[in-house]
Design a protein that fits this description.
- There is one protein chain.
- By secondary structure, the protein is mainly α.
- The chain has two domains: 69 residues, no CATH class; 80 residues, no CATH class.
- Helix content is 63%, strand content 4%.
- The protein is built from eight helices and three strands.
- Strand 2 and strand 3 form a beta hairpin.
- It is globular.
């Protein structure tokens, strides 16, 4: 099982929980991301189709809208690819990049995971980076809850399903 399959497995099925900033979401794919992907495929998006994407379509959405666009494959470690991909889905590209840049150090924190960020992350021991990156992700989501108590209902799921598994990872 590769990193995309592991993340998709954790994302689950359809969700549209009141207060969830992502809104209507299927297997981690928000409706807005789905609509943007449909434009790349030249077909009309529908809520019904979004809620019943095939496995192939789910992987295509992730490949086109996340993996290629944000250069996830350029990270040399499978463990780093998985945690960066997971963070990209949950936090968005700016926050994923900002957390990575702060974690890696010696980088301008600009919220863009470009060549310098990728090179710096790849130069670090994967397990140590992933551990520290996910500790910083936990701090990030705690700040979200501190600033918006309506998000407290999501905190446990964010941390247990998406972050704790990367703390003290085994290679």
């Amino acid at each position: 099982m590769n990193y995309i399959e592991r993340v998709v497995e954790r994302e689950g099925g359809f969700s549209d929980v009141e207060g969830d900033r992502g809104g209507d979401t299927y297997r981690g794919i928000t409706y807005d991301v789905y609509v943007a992907w449909c434009k790349t495929q030249a077909f009309e998006p529908t809520k019904k189709h979004h809620r019943s994407l095939s496995n192939f379509e789910v992987f295509e959405v992730y490949r086109v809208m996340f993996v290629k666009r944000y250069r996830i494959e350029e990270f040399t470690s499978e463990l780093v690819r998985e945690t960066m991909f997971s963070a990209l889905i949950l936090h968005g590209p700016y926050n994923m990049a900002t957390i990575a840049q702060k974690t890696a150090g010696n980088l301008k924190v600009d919220g863009v995971a470009g060549s310098k960020t990728i090179r710096r992350v790849n130069s670090l021991p994967a397990a140590a980076f992933v551990n520290d990156f996910n500790i910083n992700r936990i701090i990030f989501v705690i700040h979200i809850v501190e600033n918006d108590e309506t998000q407290l209902q999501f905190l446990e799921g964010w941390v247990t399903k998406r972050m704790l598994r990367f703390i003290r990872p085994r290679l």
